[in-house]
Design goal:
This protein is of the alpha+beta class and about 180 residues long. The chain contains 4 helices and 6 strands, in the order H-E-E-E-E-H-E-E-H-H. Helix content is about 55%, strand content about 15%.
């Protein structure tokens, strides 16, 4: 029974981490290197993450800079950013790429807040599915007479506590992201 609860907790921890990675991609009004994490560049025939073909850094609150390690990659990186269709217009000076991050409008901020909530709700659905699977395993143990009804009930209560803690973490992360988005 402890194994089932531990397994559910591990899966929920992984769900939280996946949600954390997903929510960092939701842009705020500030420049951050995480905005470019999903971009892959054609590096001599191999799709390679952008941060592996050059140095990605933040110049100021509204500008990102990319310095490729191979100067021949400047135009390829610029093209990859345009193809990613993130709404950025990279500027190429021959050796570096600068990406101005436009200010967010009030409407866009609200839409991004809704997107953060949507990601949070999807993560909570994943938590509930994990809880359901754990409870099903506990019921199977009871049917197989390996545990009593009281132990199954205690196990379900433990699984619910783990689910509630993880759900609270997701709510806190969404609230923090919304606050970050709404800051001007």
């Amino acid at each position: 029974m402890d194994e089932i609860i531990r397994e559910a907790k591990d899966k929920m921890d992984k769900t939280i981490e996946a949600f954390r990675q997903e929510i960092t991609k939701v842009r705020t009004g500030k420049a951050t290197t995480a905005l470019l994490d999903g971009i892959k560049v054609d590096y001599y025939g191999t799709l390679t993450p952008l941060n592996q073909v050059g140095n990605v850094s933040v110049l100021d609150a509204h500008t990102l800079s990319i310095t490729p390690w191979d100067k021949n990659m400047v135009s390829v990186i610029q093209k990859a950013i345009l193809i990613a269709d993130l709404g950025y217009n990279p500027l190429n000076d021959g050796t570096n790429i600068k990406i101005p991050i436009p200010q967010l409008t009030e409407e866009r901020r609200k839409n991004l807040g809704k997107l953060a909530k949507k990601f949070g709700e999807e993560a909570k659905i994943a938590l509930r599915n994990i809880r359901r699977d754990a409870n099903d395993k506990l019921k199977k143990l009871e049917v197989a007479k390996e545990i009593s009804e009281d132990l199954r009930h205690d196990g379900e209560m433990d699984v619910q506590k783990v689910t509630d803690n993880h759900s609270k973490t997701i709510d806190e992360m969404v609230a923090h992201k919304e606050k970050e988005i709404m800051e001007i």
